[in-house]
Design goal:
single chain, 254 residues, mainly alpha, three-stranded antiparallel sheet, globular, disordered N terminus, DNA-directed RNA polymerase, transcription
């Protein structure tokens, strides 16, 4: 996995007015290099970014940086990366998280159109209402061939096709907690190498009972976050409606 370093925030406009006083002062007189990494870092913590660099960004940008790095995270894990001031007001923070992430099994997942940027259409929006959902699977298939080379994977798969495949995989993982790889491949025009690379970041193979062989199913990468679901029922219900509305008319292959 590519490391997130200080250079990754070069080019970002740093606005000191987004900083609490203590962090604004740390920018004026930065600590020595041996103490600039995030204080909460552990061996299991994937971020490698100075606190001053992270906190200098707007809260939305902080969350986007985190989600781009980890891909999938529990709500409590995102909070660990943020400064204490940003953790206050849970409802407002959730709204910020939804700019960069979507909810699956009570966990946050980086939005597909951030991972696979396209020239025009995208497939994810904050689910304020069912009509906020975007284009259908058929639209993606028809337009995928017109995608420019800048919006393809290294293997040549159009990003629009990748977005569609990933969104459908997230829908299955959200609604039933698992999916079957062979059926997903039948439903989406994505070759095996790109499919496995995409799926491996959001799911894991389920082993058959009694042996170490794959059952043919893939389950969501993280365990279901029942605590978040219980504490934020309205948010969870909105996403359940969003996923259902987005894919309820999906046509199975003939």
């Amino acid at each position: 996995m590519r490391q997130l370093t200080f250079e990754s925030v070069e080019g970002e406009k740093i606005n000191p007015f987004h900083l609490p006083p203590s962090h604004f002062l740390s920018l004026l007189a930065p600590p020595s290099s041996c103490s600039t990494s995030v204080a909460a870092l552990t061996d299991a913590n994937p971020l490698d970014l100075p606190q001053s660099a992270l906190y200098a960004l707007t809260l939305e940008k902080q969350i986007e940086k985190i989600m781009r790095k980890v891909g999938v995270a529990r709500h409590s894990e995102i909070l660990e990366f943020l400064e204490p001031e940003a953790r206050r007001g849970d409802a407002a923070l959730i709204e910020k998280i939804q700019v960069s992430a979507t909810l699956v099994q009570g966990c946050w997942v980086l939005k597909s159109d951030l991972l696979y940027p396209t020239a025009a259409l995208t497939t994810t929006t904050t689910p304020s209402a069912p009509h906020g959902t975007t284009h259908s699977y058929i639209t993606t298939r028809r337009s995928a061939g017109r995608t420019s080379g800048r919006h393809n994977t290294p293997a040549g798969t159009p990003h629009k096709a990748m977005v569609d495949a990933r969104e459908y995989a997230l829908y299955l993982l959200s609604s039933q907690g698992w999916l079957e790889l062979d059926k997903l491949q039948q439903m989406t025009p994505v070759p095996g190498t790109d499919m496995l690379a995409m799926l491996g970041a959001i799911a894991r193979p389920q082993l058959a009972q009694g042996n170490n062989k794959s059952s043919g199913r893939w389950v969501f990468l993280l365990d279901r976050d029942d605590h978040f679901i219980e504490q934020h029922r309205e948010v969870t219900q909105r996403y359940a409606m969003k996923w259902e509305y987005q894919f309820r008319t999906r046509i199975a292959p003939r």
